[in-house]
Every structure is written in structure tokens, then in C-alpha cells.
Amino acid sequence: MYLLLLFGFIVNVFGNKCSLKKHSQFYLQNKFEPILEEKTIEITNDKELFQKLDGSFFAQIGSNPKYINNQDYHWFDGDGMIHAILINKTFATYQNRWVQTKRLQTENKWKRKMYAYFGELRGINGIFQAIKYSLFEKIGITSKDKGTANTAMLYWNKKLYALQEGDKPYEMAINYTEFNLSTKGRLNKYDNIFSTSAHPIIDNNRDLLYLYGYNNYDFSEGKFIFNVFNKEMELLNQRNISLLNNGMIHEACFTGNKMIIPDLPLKYDTSKMIEGELPLYFDKNNGTTRFGLFDVTNQNSPIDWYYFKENFFIFHFIKSFEKGDFIIIYACVMETAYLSDFIELDVEKNPSKRIRGKIRLKELIIDTKKNITYINENAILQETTLGFHYNLDFPVKSKMNPNDIYLSIFNASSGYIVGYMKCNVKNFLYTIPDIYLFENSHYGNSEPQVVTIDNKEYLLTFTNDDNQSYLSLIHIANKTIENLIIKERIPPGFHSIYISD
User: Fold this and answer.
1) Which of 73, 296, 419, 457 has minimal Cβ neighbours within 10 Å of its Cβ?
2) 313-355 per-position pLDDT tens digit
3) How many CB atoms lie within 10 A of CB 158?
4) Residues 360, 381 contacting (CB under 8 angstroms)
């Protein structure tokens, strides 16, 4: 078997050439088509609104594979690329850079794809691919470090990190004088940490970083791994917490005193591959959904678990707080999750077809005294609001009003961001959102950032149309947009960051 796989590897490396032009996967086409060059472009800043962002840095990170072959590609699979812009009073400098991960460096050495895609892990071919790439690692052709650093960024103690939950953080170096973004290195010094969250929590009251993780290195059992770091990136404490489910925990939540651990029924089972499905699946009918409350002050205290009648999944939380005996949580809740939605547009076994999980901002309430949970939903946020199937995700907080939340509106059929929504959650059940929709084939690129200019709040983000990309400032209530043209195509990404110091 090993000789056969080795022969297949030799044929693969020396007998074929990679090409992006003929790929049929949805997330390699049109606006999602990867960028193949790193560039630096200087842009004249002649817009008064942007001039008021003098000395600031904005960046988007996303999935941008450098080497691709004909196996199934999942949008989460690509190499991390950062699109960054440094803004001054008279000009802005745009730059895109791949994060130089161990994985990318290995593939640069071989000049081709050398690791398994998550999207490949379906059917008999998926089993073969898993064995093949395990053999590459076993005989030393590839590194054990498989992370892509493609999901989000962290700014902690004036240092920037690129994150992906399958690996440790990569520190990025920013030269502000001669604007240049480069990869400084990977956080390697702790052998008891295999991977960390792409959504760590900064505890400003205690000057601590909760760089938690979960068991995504072998999925043998469910674990939430609570890591506490100080500003010098020294590991102060680690605690392993057992879970019912052994799948993904993309993000946790924090009230200021209690960590909210989501134990959700997204499970990992390799036998699903034999059925032609991905090994990571959502158990809607037979799963268990619960939240654990973990006291960060007394980190050795027992976990209190609270169960929900409904099964759901959450990629992104946005706000939580304690109010007497109640824990109030706001999150973008998926009614169901099909990970294959991020490989192809339509999935046969997805009864909602192009609704893609129907993600909505919801209010989740835990009554800690009565041990009861509730889920509230605003009726205005239903499909009828906009007249097309859509999802609400990438929530970001207002800087001026603690009750305001901004959300990206995704067209569920195309996967593109078609606008933004602003919701006030003070009276969540009856609030009427402000909505901004793009016009003329204009689309958003990723999670926006909130900036304040002259006591007004704007969303700062990269956007694009059919011809070029832009750095945009959007005022939702006034339904206005101001653009700086970037004569370079920027594909859709995941999360972003804004640094003004």
C-alpha cells in the first residue's frame, strides 16, 4: 500500500501541472477566485472623510490557496492572505501578503499542493487522500504543521497575530515607515498547546488573554482547552474541560466574569466519509446543545451546564452579560449546519437548499436560578424583511452605543455580502433594524470594522464591484457610502482588524 501511494505521489508531483482556470468549485470562481500575486499599491487619498483616519491601519484576512489541484476545495481550506491598507492624510498604501505558515513554506518548496483539503474528505477517494497525506507526513515529505492562518487577526500588546483554529498564532511584523507586512514567526514555545481559537477573548479588566482551543488535532473526544496568557504571551494557566460533543467550537463568549462554553452538536465521525459525507456533521435530530458557565476568577471551580431544547450551531457570538440570575447572550444562530455548503452551492441533503442554515441574530437567555433556557427572535429579521433568502453573520459592536450591533447581510444563494444591518438590542423583540443594501453589483468583502469620525459611526471595509475594489466608509442610517478606489481585485475574506494607535 505504501509503495502504491508513493508511486502515486511521484506521478502527482512530476507528471501534472496545477491550474486555476478549469476548476469548477464554487469558492474558486468569480469573486472568490484566488489572487496569485503579492502587490503594493499607492493610492491618492483625496477624500476628506478618509483623511480623518490619518495614521490608521485596516486589514482583512481570508482563504486564498496558492496551490490547487482537482480535489474538492472547501472555503475554509485556503492559505491565509492578508489584504492591508495604511491610511495617511494624502495617500494610502495597499498591500496583500500570504501568511508564511509552515504549511505554505512546505508547498513552496515542492511548488504544489501537498496537504489534504478538508473538502476532499468524502467517499472512498477521501479515505485514500487522508491515507496518502498521512503517509507524506510519516515519511517526512510534509511537516506536521497544517495550519493556514486564514481566519482572523488578534492585536494584543501592540503585536498583530494571524489566527486559524487548526494551529498556533503567527505573529506578523508591520513596518509603518516603509509600509510592509511580513510574517515574523509562529508561537512555538508551548508543547502542551496544539492549536488555539481564531476568536480569543481579551479580558481588559484583568489584562489577560484567553486563547482557548478545542480537540481538533484528533477529535477522539470532546475537549475545551482554556489557556490564559499575559501580555508577554506567557502561559499562566491551562485547564481541560470535557465536552459531550467532539466537533468544532469556533467561538466562545465572555460576560466579564464567566466564560460561556458552547457544547454544540457539530460532531466528528470518520465513518461519515464512507457514506460520501464530510466527517464533521451537525446532529440536528439526536444531538445535545448546552452552554457551560466557567468562572475565570476561580478557574478550578466546577462548570455549570444549561441545556437547550433546540439544537443549533453558532459560529459567532457578539455580546453577553449577567443580569441578576440571568445570563443574556446575543449571537448569530444557525438553525442547522451543513459544512458542505462551503464546497458547493447546492447540497442534495440540505432541505433548505440555498438558505444555508438560516443564520439570524438571536437572544439566548439562561435562568441560572431555575435552570431554564430561552431563545428569543425578532420577527422583523425574517425572510420577508428583504424579499430574498439571506443570512446575518459577522456581528460587530458599536463603539458609541453598547446596545447597537452591526451585522453583514449575506445573499444565501451567492454567498456575497449584499449589505449591512444595524440592530438595537435594548428591546430586542420589537426593535426595527436600519438596513443598508449595496447597489449596481457592489458587494462587501468581509467583516467590517466600526470607526468614529466627527462623532458619527461608520463601517470601514473593503468592497468590490465587477471592475475593481474599494476601501469604503458606510453610514447605515444615512444610507451613504464613500469609496477610495483600489485598482486590484480583493476576493471575499473572513474577519478584519482596525488599528488606530
Assistant:
1) 457
2) 999 999 999 999 999 999 999 999 988 888 886 655 555 555 5
3) 9
4) yes
